[in-house]
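Q: Hi! New to this. If I give you a protein sequence and the SMILES for copper (II) ion, can you show me the bound structure?
A: Yes, paste them in.
Q: Okay, here:
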Amino acid sequence: MSRKQSRSTRITPEATEPREVREVREVWVREDGQRGVGRRDLLQLGLLGTAAGALRGAAPAPAQPGSRRGRSGAAAGPTARPPISPQFVVPPTPVDAASAPETWIEPWVWKPSLWPGQQLQLNVVENEVPGPIVGFGNDSSVLFSYGGITPGPTIRMKGDEILFVKLRNLLGEDLGKTPVGPAPDLNELTPELDAAIEKAGGDPYSVIPADVREDFCLGEHTNGQHSAHVSNLHTHGLHVRPGRNPDGTHSDNVILRVIPQRDLERRRRRAGDPTCEWLRDPEQTTFLRDDEQVGEANYEFRIGNTPATPMHPPGTFWYHPHSHGSTHNQVSSGMAGFLLVEGDVDVAINRAMTGDPDPDLEQKHGEWDYRERLMLVQAVLNTPKDPDAENEELRSPPNPAINGSALPRVMTMRPGAVERWRVLNGSVDGRGYRRLMVLAGQYAVDEDNELVRWDAATKTWQRRTREQVEGDKQQLWQLAFDGITLMEERGGEMRYVIRDLARQNAGAPFPLAGPVPSDCPAKWRETANGRELCRYENAYRNGENVYDTYVRPNEVYMAPANRADVFFQAPRDAGSDGEVYTVLAHKVIVHADNPEQGMQKNLAQGVEAPPQGPVQIVIGWLAVSGDPCPPFDIESLTAELPPVPDYLKPVRDDELRAASGSGFRTRVIEYSGWGSQDYPLIEVPQSFVDTHPELENLRYARHGGGWVLLPAAIRSMAIDGRKFDPTDPERPRMELDTAEEWVLYNSSTMLWGDVDPEDQPPTRFKGHYRSHAISRAEGQRRFRRDTSFQITSRAVDHPFHIHQNPFWVTRIEVPDENGELHNVLPHPRWQDVVWIPRNRGRVVFRSRFPDYVGTFVEHCHLLLHEDNGMMQVLEITPFADQANYVLRPRVTSPGMSAEQISELYPRPTREQAYRRSASFVDPNHATGQVYPGFEVEPPPLEDDE
Ligand SMILES: [Cu+2]
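A: Thanks. Here is the predicted structure of the protein with copper (II) ion bound:
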């Protein structure tokens, strides 16, 4: 145990692991390229401290005595094939369509209209022994939740109601410690530093001179994961006042920190503590910062009744905590619930389907057994942490969860029955992208994360290929995205529409499923991994392939935090025995560069199977049987839908024109940065070392006769090069009651380099490589010639989310292998979360800023990124002279090419993206920093011709 930490020190669990476990983790993560392994998994695998080298070179985990895979009898070794017959962690039960009972569950419902003036009580608790739908099937869970249940209660309110909430924080004191200001990532130190720490008794901060403070006293909007017990409440997607209401109650106030009572007590007891320095500030007259409140807070969400929105638009929204530093930990451990605003769209649909404008939507009604179902889908791969819990880890759901249930449940439908599903992608980490679809047959996920289907004839589960899955897809109709009803121009005016997703890119080939491309090297064709890599490369070959990869019929592509409202009609041809269908949240392997890197490593090492990728989630099984309902044409509901209110009509060019008439209001926002593992090797210039000796071991460390830059503890993710500060003076400021066109760029970009140990510079340390900002095509060409030239830094698609106002998205542009941009958004639509494609991908949208002045935020909805500072404060100001939009002579139009848009909104070059991702400013006034403090340049790549 080289890094034994006291239980009260907040350091990532990785840092407290024995060295050999860290090595296993690193090897696993890097070589698999996809699937992180938690300490808990290692315990389950029986690897803790015993089998450090066992995973080396293996893509699927090798057999270990006592491990799940060991019991299943799979072969071990670096080139192990997946087992022929599927094995399951929990064997699924075949569903008999004719007799299966309904087992679907949903959270209880709170309607403000039934409790006039009453507060919904949301108590934040930590459970030792959760109840039946709490534990995600994990019988010893420790979870944060609202009142012991996850998801929290479903709120159904009308568009002009007030939602009263009392939030109580019943958690114990914050025991953690957090480095503020400059500090290195403790998992990414040089061997020399590791040795020094071990020699010093294992306390890293006795060697690293970081400013470490105790969480109970932070009182700061510090960037990084900290203060797991501080909470608050965010209404995601609501057009509602940010901050406080005029009477002092809270509205959508994410700057508020509701601290536990015990934190306040500790501040009183330890007022003289040097780590609690701010208490001694003469201007500090209480034990609380201005943004803090103790134990509880009263919220009043008053929607509608504004000039722009007399009635709030109806839709599927949600609520979750948003306290900077603990957002990931709390949301991913199950603190989330649906917040549904019901309005004219729902009345029209309910009346058409049931004859009743306001039926109980948890029951079946009318000729088509019409009902709604809510599906909160969550799979957590970054374990939530709580310094108060054993191992500092919350027992998060190890399995995917659907409405809190670890196992898929059964929904019963009659043939021809029609249902509306409100689906929330509650996965909030980097592997949380999903493709929502319904498949014929009963599908399950085996232990290798492969899809299998029940074959009634042989009574066995059979593997399904990607082609077979495409062929099993059932027709879906989409009503809304991110809560807002889809719309398009018809007969000269905007009309709400219900879209038949069977027509979405119908008949297009699927590059990831088709035949192996003809240029696939013969040697690669020999293994599943090699064939998969060829298909993956082919997906980015040109604009057509990119489009056909991302836009598929009968599915909805969902980033973390996106919602989709879809209709499903059970097929009317189910025989007397009935038929089973599966609602699936299919994994997405094109959301990050991890899969490609994993396949490259497997290929280089002769591993046959491709990496497993993000988990597949079976949402539920549909048992369809009984007397058929009458025929029904779902698209005919379009005629029933009400008119589109002005607030939701697309933003016109003339709304963007500045009052002076001198141009259009525009803005560019740039996301950038890498995870600490993906940080490239950057050699530190001697001049910086000479002038900043105080930063040794904080920013840079001695290694191999040179100096290397240490990846920062808070990762390098940033927006416009800056990390979050609620008072950031450079915040975007929009003028009240205007509109702007925004362009988002994602400068998180892949890097390539030589990973051959022989060829490394003397300063090379651990997994950090001298890395080059080159195109995917150039990198792939070099990899084909020499497999030690690989992706060394992986980028990810960041899901951009803005509070308070939705935006009208006109383009989502994905770069092909040469970096050329291609739009993959078939129809413009309103969203409140949009993924910005990595590698300098681009999004174009327009947004209005009516009704509310004040500050609010936009941020990455990979909540670890947000906690690490990938969040930006924004302001809507009533004063025209304070707005800081950029005037441009022109704005985008539907016919423009990607190149024309780049002329209007210059796109970062690869070199600029490298520099941006390698650096950030943390503008917090107390603990700010400029990282790294010198200009970084991508190293030149030697010409190999
Ligand atoms: Cu992100």
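A: The chain has four domains: 13-72, 109-342, 356-644, 650-675+712-749+795-923. Let me know if you'd like me to explain how to read the tokens.
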